[in-house]
Amino acid sequence: MNKFDQEAIVCRSITGIYILLTREDFACEEKFLRWKVWPDGDYYDTEKDGRGFYDNGIPLDSHVDKLGAVPSDILLALDAAEASTEARRTAAMIEQIKICLTGTQHRRLWMLYARKMNVTAIAKAEGISKASASRSIRAALKNISAFFPERGENR
Asked: Does domain 100-149 sit in CATH 1.10.3470?
């Protein structure tokens, strides 16, 4: 907070409330500058301290977060169940989308969104003009919007 406000010193009181000390709160400019430099420097040193270890280390256990906390078995099970449910929901949505598209439209949308290809690359891969690829993709999105009207405006 101190780094962002060059005209004041921001400090937290014992009650947790942040206090803003300005130049007017000090007897002279030198005292303000002396105290202004201290928290900025301390912030930098604190931020820098231990970075070499944490930036260059890789946790051996994939379940350990950056702070070293290991989630409980219940949380791991809930995460797995949620991921499984989301995967089933996504697969069902893809199957519904396939119903409302031609094979060509589905393939081109797959290239656009799943393979992260741009329209020019899709046109080249399909051996068609960029305009044709673009029209096909627009038609596919229009079909999906018609099939899922509640999602059409949130694409």
From this structure: no
For 110, the token pair is 């797959």
Prediction pTM value: 0.44
75, 76, 81, 82 alpha-carbon torsion, rounded to 10°: 70
47-80 tens-digit pLDDT: 666 666 666 666 565 555 555 555 666 777 777 8
Give the count of beta carbons closer than 10 Å to the beta carbon of residue 36. Answer: 19
Query: What backbone torsions phi and psi does residue 71 show, to the nearest 5 degrees?
Result: -70, 155
Rounded to the nearest angstrom, the gap between the alpha carbon of residue 3 and the centroid of all alpha carbons in its chain is 25
Q: Where are the alpha helices (DSSP H) in 63-129?
A: 73-99, 103-109, 119-126
Distance CA 120, CA 145 (A): 24
Q: Tell me the pLDDT tens digit for each residue of 115-155.
A: 999 999 999 999 999 999 999 999 999 988 887 766 544 44
At 121, give phi and psi (nearest 5°): -65, -40
Candidates 97, 128, 131, 102; CA nearest to 114 is: 97
Q: Where are the domains of the chain?
A: 8-56, 100-149
